[in-house]
Specification:
Blueprint (H helix, E strand, L loop, with lengths): L5 E12 L2 E12 L3 E5 L6 H8 L7 E6 L3 E2 L5 H7 L1 E4 L11 H8 L12 H17 L15 H13 L5 E5 L7 H14 L4 E5 L3 H7 L2 E6 L2 E6 L1 H5 L2 H8 L2
Parallel strand pairs: 3-8, 3-9, 6-7, 7-8
Antiparallel strand pairs: 1-2, 1-4, 4-5, 9-10
The structure holds adenosine-5'-diphosphate.
Length: about 250
């Protein structure tokens, strides 16, 4: 996709730490409603790329545009989150002592109207949205449980639900299936594929079975730039990708 159809557009993005180039003229275009898997060896620049998109790290050079027009390099982290870019880090961070229901409600934007029946309708709308999110992440039957009592996989899904509750346009997900069982991994692939029907999603992941199950375009980073990009079969058989990453 071109700039005008992109949700995320990186062009010539470079980041150096003490002279070491973590990103080296990285260019990548992600289309509206696209899901993209990012793979690559440790130190390839995957985390730095996510940090640049979310405003945690400012690039030394290059353009980072959201929705074809918004210059993310000019914004701070809070403003970027406000635009509708949600990030999930590798470890689950949920409110352990709250119920699944309350975790989603706490994540939702806007004031929570309690008490007065005047606001009853608004609470019902919120409840409907919450139920919708729980349905999407497969936790509807667990809504009254404490987050602390969920499995590791369920906590990850809950946190993905908390991101969805903020109504993002773009979701950045960092190694979601690390530590999951095979069944949970499979369910996570289905869950993200369902979310990708209505959101753009970028997933950083090492588990190649999972990446295959996502069924999306794959970008392999190496030394801060794109080594290979395309369908999983193309990328996973690319000689350079095998050499620097898969053949480990
Ligand atoms: P990946 O996520 O693909 O493993 P990273 O983006 O974390 O790669 O790291 C890319 C390179 O940049 C690594 O060599 C790492 O050591 C270096 N790096 C990342 N962040 C910093 C930092 N804050 N200070 C110094 N070096 C860093």
């Amino acid at each position: 996709p071109e700039l005008t159809q992109s949700i995320l557009y990186l062009d010539g993005v470079s980041v150096s730490f003490d002279g070491f180039r973590a990103l080296n003229s990285l260019s990548m275009v992600i289309g509206h409603g696209e899901m993209r898997a990012i793979i690559g060896p440790n130190g390839a620049g995957k985390t730095t790329m996510m940090d640049v998109i979310t405003g945690k790290t400012r690039p030394d050079e290059g353009d980072v545009l959201f929705d074809g027009k918004v210059d993310l390099t000019a914004l701070d982290e809070a403003s970027i989150a406000e635009l509708g870019i949600g990030r999930k880090f590798q470890k689950p961070t949920v409110f352990e002592s709250h119920t699944v229901d309350d975790n989603i409600l706490l994540a939702m934007k806007g004031p929570r109207s309690a008490g007065s029946s005047l606001f009853g309708w608004r609470n019902r709308v919120r409840d409907d949205e919450k139920d919708q999110v729980l349905e999407t992440v497969g936790l509807k039957d667990h809504r009254r449980r404490l987050a602390a009592d969920l499995s590791h996989g369920q906590k990850q899904w809950l946190e993905i639900g908390m991101l969805l509750a903020q109504d993002p346009k773009l979701l950045l997900v960092d190694e979601p299936v690390a530590g999951m069982t095979d069944a949970e991994t499979e369910q996570t692939a289905e869950l993200l594929a369902a979310i990708a029907k209505t959101h753009a999603v970028v997933v950083v992941e090492h588990d190649m079975h999972f990446v295959r199950a996502l069924g999306c375009k794959v970008t392999c980073l190496h030394e801060g730039s794109v080594l290979a990009e395309g369908a999983i079969d193309q990328v996973s058989t690319n000689d350079r990708v095998v050499e620097v990453y898969l053949g480990r």
